[in-house]
Amino acid sequence: MASVTSLTASVHQRLADALSAALPEAGAADPLLRRSDRADFQANGILALAKKAKANPRELAATVLDALPANDVIKDVEVSGPGFLNITIADKAIIETLAARAADDRLGVPFQQDAGTTVIDYAQPNVAKEMHVGHLRSAVIGAAMVEILEFTGEKVVRRHHIGDWGTQFGMLIQYLLEHPHELDHEGGKEDGEAAMSSLNRLYKASRALFDSDEEFKARSRDRVVALQAGDAETIALWQRFVDESKIYFYSVFNKLDMQIDDPDVVGESGYNDMLEETCRILEESGVAVRSEGALCVFFDDVLGPDGNKVPLIVKKTNGGYGYAATDLSAIRDRVQNLKASTLLYVVDARQSLHFKMVFETARRAGWLNEDVKAHQLAFGTVLGKDGKPFKTREGETVRLVDLLDEAIDRATSVVREKAEKVGLTEEEIVENGMYVGIGAVKYADLSTSAVRDYKFDLDQMVSLNGDTSVYLQYAYARIRSIFGKAGDRRPLAHPELELAPAERALGLHLDRFGETLAEVASSYEPHKLAAYLYQLASLYTTFYDQCPVVKPAPAPEVAENRLFLCDLTARTLHQGMALLGIRTPERL
Ligand code: ARG
Hints:
alpha/beta; Gyrase A, domain 2; Rossmann fold; 4 domains; four-stranded antiparallel sheet; four-stranded parallel sheet; 20 helices; 52% helix; binds arginine; arginine-tRNA ligase activity; ligase; EC 6.1.1.19
């Protein structure tokens, strides 16, 4: 494993040195380097520096140019416009850098310097309830962040904060007690659908009784008390709901091609033992105060429509604990026991006020501070094709599994259409259909900025043209097919060759993989990785059109160098897609 210094980083360093040599009194100055269409890079930092030093920017630019020692990386620098530097990289440096990447299993991507421990809260459905598109987003975005952070060297602890506690369980448990066989079903332990449909049936029946029968309602309320008191029989029944629901959750995660491990599922109930202490600490430290019988935390900037402060309620007037007490206890656990340096929550933007208040409370209590940060990776709503929140024609929330099944169906037909040409077996068609369908759903979610709403449009998602996972998967498979019988032979780079514009553009982009990942990891923006990969596939397409690899046959070392670029592109695509949780079949 050897990390590779990117061309951007080495050019940046050289320019920064030249800047301080040209103008020592300015101290360390940022050359403000960016990719440019005119040359490979443009440095704009001289303008600000000249202003500060009251110098003529074009003259200063010329001095900087003189201070730049001769080197192998920069082939050409030119002063342009009011004092920009246009920088062209040497072809040799591009291929040599890429060859160093190709020699490394991690494609030369360095481990982050100051890695810490991130506890990530994602994929958190609710017990005895259906999973819908909101749960999809948390799962997909969260899983991508897990992979990306781990790849950069961060230690990651997964936490699935499932909704497994609350007063609604009183009604469900009471009903099950009175109708002991209602959760029985034909399907075995693996049958998620059977588990969910019996849960649904029981939920509806108990709800109907609860709404129509006052005595059942009263018995249900007593059952909540028994549950909270830890009554053994009540807990045993509650556990059945949790277990049946988990069978279902796992079946959906499985379909999503996502691994969720049981020890990482620590739901709301997992913090029951801490709730009392959390409240005591908050009250004794004065962070929370009694108000109308409840234990509350107030904030100057959280006001209701009447202008009065709206509190975070940590303990209700009736002594019950809610969502906030659980989340505050979870923070204590994650910071004190799991030793987190970062807490990341992949949760719907509609819960942003909750997290704002919870984080601020934790800060006042000292659980969060300079060394331990919390961040909500908030995501927007999934909309139907009509641009309205996603509902069935009957106005019900759409079941996530139904959407996934439909995506797989559609994708399978797309795959089947091309299958004959590639010579896929029926088995491969079915497997690829799954990878393409699930990939399409994940990619659509990951390729727009998380906070934005997006339209769930299967036609668009499985389209072969445009910014879709299928497009990227085909690009990958096409590259792999070039290697065909050559198999896994690693082509050799030829740094001595002059490069065509499309080769340079592809090469410079390949070199930016590590930088992109570092940015995505620190800003929690997986859509930037999707954009990078899409651009990679597009640059590859242009390269493939303009620079023949096989026919018409170029000179042998040119062909070899092009194969080298193909191979590195495929490996980068494969790695990037894997980080997004998307498979890249070898044949498609
Ligand atoms: N179960 C919740 C829901 O479905 C999400 C939980 C988010 N995580 C948390 N720590 N509050 O909306």
